[in-house]
UniProtKB/TrEMBL annotation:
Membrane spanning residue stretches: none
Keywords for the protein's UniProt record, in alphabetical order: 2Fe-2S, Iron, Iron-sulfur, Metal-binding
Record-given protein name: Ferredoxin
InterPro entries registered for this protein in UniProt: 2Fe-2S_ferredoxin-like_sf (IPR036010), Adrenodoxin-like (IPR001055), Beta-grasp_dom_sf (IPR012675)
Gene Ontology terms: biological process: electron transport chain; P450-containing electron transport chain
GO CC list: mitochondrion
Organism: Zostera marina
Recorded superkingdom: Eukaryota
PANTHER family membership: 2FE-2S FERREDOXIN-LIKE SUPERFAMILY PROTEIN, FERREDOXIN/ADRENODOXIN
Gene Ontology MF, one: electron transfer activity
Length: 159
């Protein structure tokens, strides 16, 4: 026991105060900026309810600034292999979705290109106000709780 106590050295109090000051400075800098990577992601999250062609409801989490197509693809509801993500010029409307009535006014109007593609390639062959291309809907916080229906894939698009 005497040997163990003789090998213990005292740490000068000035060393401890330097270490604490350094730690406090780092913490204070983070508190002043108010930024952390986890806060940014959680602030950008948009929760959407997606109804699959089977009728099953899925909660999909997307990010503000991300397209609806990307969020549905990440959730596994749309096969990424059958789409050229976010490229409207290569689009054949495989990403067509139906938007619930209460969310239609929160979306910008369709572009002429989107209307043309929907009329030409619509799954239901009846152009209606609920039809949108997922690649053209950019998510915002305003879309929290949005309900979308994901139609069955076209047989020729199924891998």
């Amino acid at each position: 026991m005497a040997m163990a106590s003789s090998s213990i050295r005292r740490i000068p109090i000035s060393f401890l105060s330097r270490t604490l000051t350094r730690t406090t400075t780092t913490t204070t800098a983070e508190a002043v900026t108010g930024r952390s990577s986890s806060a940014k992601v959680s602030d950008r999250m948009v929760r959407i309810s997606a109804i699959a062609s089977s009728g099953q409801k899925h909660e999909v989490i997307g990010l503000s600034g991300q397209t609806l197509l990307r969020a549905l693809t990440n959730a596994g509801l749309i096969d990424p292999a059958s789409h050229r993500l976010e490229d409207i010029e290569a689009c054949s409307a495989e990403c067509e979705v139906s938007i619930a009535e209460e969310f239609l006014n929160m979306l910008p109007p369709r572009s002429e290109e989107e209307e043309y593609l929907l009329k030409r390639n619509s799954r239901v062959r009846i152009f209606n106000k609920h039809s949108r291309l997922g690649c053209q809907v950019v998510l915002t916080q305003e879309h929290q709780g949005m309900v979308v229906a994901v139609p069955e894939p076209k047989p020729w698009d199924t891998p």
